[in-house]
Amino acid sequence: xxxxxxxxxxxxxxxxxxxxxxxxxxxxxxxxxxxxxxxxxxxxxxxxxxxxxxxxxxxxxxxxxxxxxxxxxxxxxxxxxxxxxxxxxxxxxxxxxxxxxxxxxxxxxxxxxxxxxxxxxxxxxxxxxxxxxxxxxxxxxxxxxxxxxxxxxxxxxxxxxxxxxxxxxxxxxxxxxxxxxxxxxxxxxxxxxxxxxxxxxxxxxxxxxxxxxxxxxxxxxxxxxxxxxxxxxxxxxxxxxxxxxxxxxxxxxxxxxxxxxxxxx
Length: 265
Prior knowledge:
Blueprint: H1 5-14, E1 16-19, H2 25-46, E2 54-56, E3 62-66, E4 69-73, E5 82-86, H3 93-98, H4 102-112, E6 117-127, E7 135-138, H5 141-148, E8 156-161, E9 172-174, E10 207-208, E11 216-220, E12 225-227, E13 236-245
Antiparallel strand pairs: 1-11, 2-3, 3-4, 4-5, 5-6, 6-13, 7-12, 8-11, 8-13, 9-10, 9-12
């Protein structure tokens, strides 16, 4: 299976494309079980006295480093829910196998116009029922840029939906064609200087990407996107796998240089 024809044309034109029915019910059952197993194991280890260092960001959000992954805890005070884990491919064999799965790697190679791809990073997004928080307008580009500078242009991400995604449970929202403008102006009120400036966003142009479980949403590092809170009674879990051309180091093996973000608009 390859990403070609109309799907690739849409990816080039709009900055994203959606593939339906890529993973079947059996695949999804295995991956959901793995997701919950990993989340429980990481949470249990992180809550030990020696569970790993935690930092509170200037915006009040909390990140903890444990089990060789970065845990983003949910934003509400006192929450013990995990919002996101990165990376996750080392935490379960089912997750590790996805980087070699042709249903993803072939798509990524076509999108990047290369023969072979390599892992860049992986995430488990756990937008829990009633508690899953929003994520404002942003591009992935600034987050990659502080690791790999201009090579951030050459990263493509697959969002594998483990649950049905819709407006009520915080499905992804995108600005079609926004990738063509390059790095967008950043929000100077954002302590990390990584979010997009909301004053520069035409929200009337946004597209809500509702899709059933088993679908894969593809987008590049320059697509402007966001997600709303999960106000529903249903989880909206997803695995995010980012690919790059073969021969480049994994995200976790690259130096973190936050000062580089100031080189961007």
